[in-house]
Amino acid sequence: MSNRERALLRGRVRVPLARLREALRSSPVQLTLEPAGARLRVLGTVTALSAPITFSTELELSGLVARGDARLLTVRFHDTTASVPDDAPGPLAKTLRAGDVDLAQVGDRVAAQLGLPAFIVSARGNAVTLDLMRVPWLSAGERALVARAVRLGTQGLTVSAVRVVGDALELQLALLPLGITGFARAAVAELLLPALTRFAEGGPS
Which helix (H) or strand (E) holds 153? Predict the structure, then answer.
């Protein structure tokens, strides 16, 4: 039996970081992903308020939590640093050079911003919590069936923990996190009730 088969039997799946790096190649921000113990180190450079900012942070990812229609993922930021060139213009660059930004509390910095996207549901201390069901790709009306499938699917099988192992993300899977009763309730809410509603309204099945 291969190592991959043994891992699957223990409910673990590994996603090589190489795949994530490949997916990020088309991103407007050039990011570097590196293992940092059980965390994921992210390095990159972004331009904000005309200043090029070089940053580094270590991410600790939680498991996926089902709460009503929400699917919550919490990201904790550790050992975050940011620097700008000595000649970078603007108030943000000046503030970073002076060391006046508390980068140990990234969540608080995010919470202080105006116009946060709807999928950021909480930001405090060094943690930011995202509702994956509010990410624009899933929340668009034309993807209602996909969103319904995701909500139901994550009641049957979810990710209970995430960590970095070697050069891969290891996902710890959990079957029926809310038990058979919870899954049955989700199936009724996501499948049976919508079908009955469409039938009663005379719509397509």
Answer: helix 144-156
Contact 125, 108 (CB under 8 A): yes
Please, which pLDDT band fits residue 119 given cuts at 50, 70 and 90? very high
The conformation of residue 113, written as its DSSP 8-state character, comes to S
- CA–CA distances in Å: residue 6 to residues 3, 10, 11, 26, 107: 5, 6, 9, 34, 37
At 176-196, the pLDDT tens digits run 766 667 656 665 565 554 554
C-alpha 150/C-alpha 152 separation (Å) is 5
3-state secondary structure of 18: helix
pLDDT band, very low/low/confident/very high, at 94 (cuts 50, 70, 90): confident
pTM given for the model: 0.77
Strands 12-16 and 157-165: unpaired
Q: Is 31:42 a contact under the CB 8 Å cutoff?
A: yes
As a whole number of angstroms, the distance between CA 76 and CA 105 comes to 10
According to the model, what pLDDT value does residue 114 have? 78
Nearest C-alpha neighbor of 94 from the set 85, 81, 103: 85
Decide: 98 and 88 in contact? Cβ < 8 Å: no
